[in-house]
TrEMBL record:
Entry protein name: NISCH protein
Keywords assigned by UniProt, alphabetized: Cytoplasm
Top-level taxon of origin: Eukaryota
Residues of the Nischarin C-terminal PH domain: 241-347
Pfam family, one: PH_NISCH_C
UniProt-annotated location(s): Cytoplasm
GO molecular function, one term: kinesin binding
GO BP term, pick one: lysosome localization
Length: 348
């Protein structure tokens, strides 16, 4: 049984983010406290009798096979595996992936039971962990496309805590020693000596799982991409990315119940002159080793971009975290209004 401190810590972490809605089955899990939570894990989730629950986290997750569908999950880390207890709406919405989810309990659909799907990634199958920019998310990669999951924590603290717990658990694994020498420095071999190109920082854990962190070139690539979207209105050397954050765009749903809104995941990028919203593919990049072709869409797709000089005011909500911000821009169709007026008036 875990210590009192660990039970208390897991109980404190067992809180669904207030802005996200989950199914009844996950609400039940979130209502469990203390020893009841540990007993629930051993009775319903754990695959081996002697495994220990070490960490619990609520997070949105994305699967490599369904990169467009973000779903809420309770992520449980034990000494044997990472368990993703999924919202049952995901299984219903994704029935075309029948090979991915084996639905053997479909006859229980109309009963009083609330079913959840539990996706299991054994620690022995874990190959690498990619940490996203500014620790806003991380991707866990196994040995096939079915075993790639991204956790969108949108919180550097949660990402850091999970990575630390995962490293501690991996240290307990007894793996056969690697044939090549593993006594390398901390950021082992991040520079490729053949091409001269800087690779991402890699930490090879004693369990031979790679922990891969982004380097400064990723920010440079992102700045170049942003400059491209700005149609050459600015000089690339003077373009600084001030903020990169995973957020939600709030879309109010008309004709439905009062005050309902849908949250669209977006990547918000703030530069010294513009504010951008991107649709980002968090799970397909960098390409896994077994990928035979690139993903169907680019990593970043621009959905909206506004100049800071057109910003009229910012409205701040008074609710607790997460904070809602409303950006109000001047409603001018053509950005360079005076130039267009001049051309219309004096042109042929």
């Amino acid at each position: 049984y875990p210590s009192e401190f660990l039970v208390q810590k897991i109980t404190e972490d067992n809180q669904i983010p207030v802005h996200l809605h989950v199914s009844v089955s996950l609400q039940y899990v979130a209502g469990l406290k203390g020893r009841a939570l540990v007993e629930f894990f051993h009775s319903n989730i754990a695959e081996v009798e002697n495994e220990e629950l070490r960490h619990l986290m609520w997070s949105s997750v994305l699967f490599y096979k369904t990169p467009n569908m973000e779903v809420m999950a309770c992520v449980l880390l034990s000494t044997k595996a990472v368990y993703f207890l999924l919202d049952d709406s995901f299984i219903h919405a994704d029935e075309h992936q029948s090979g991915f989810w084996n639905r053997e309990n479909s006859d229980c659909e109309n009963s009083s039971f609330h079913l959840s799907c539990c996706f299991v990634l054994k620690l022995n199958d874990l190959q690498s962990v990619n940490v996203g920019l500014f620790d806003q998310y991380f991707r866990i990669t196994g040995h096939s496309a079915d075993h790639i999951v991204t956790c969108l924590t949108r919180d550097s603290y949660n990402t850091h805590t999970f990575i630390q717990q995962l490293m501690a658990v991996l240290s307990l694994l007894a793996r056969t020693p690697s044939p090549e020498p593993v006594d390398k420095d901390f950021y082992s071999e991040f520079g490729s000596k053949n091409t001269g190109k800087m690779e991402n920082y890699e930490l090879i854990h004693s369990s031979r799982v790679k922990f891969i962190y982004p380097n400064e070139e990723e920010i440079g690539d992102l700045a170049f991409l942003v400059a491209e979207k700005m149609d050459g209105l600015t000089n690339l050397p003077s373009l600084n990315i001030l903020l990169y954050v995973l957020a939600f765009q709030v879309n109010h749903v008309e004709g439905s119940a009062q005050n309902t809104s849908s949250l669209q995941p977006k990547t918000l990028i703030l530069t010294s002159s513009d504010l951008f919203l991107f649709d980002e593919d968090y799970v397909s990049y960098p390409l896994p080793e077994f990928a035979k072709e690139p993903p169907k869409r680019d990593k970043y797709q621009l959905t909206d971009g506004r100049r800071i000089r057109d910003l009229d005011r910012v409205l701040m909500g008074y609710q607790m975290y997460p904070q809602a911000l409303t950006f109000v821009f001047d409603d001018v169709q053509n950005q360079d209004l005076m130039q267009n007026l001049t051309l219309d008036h004096f042109g042929e």
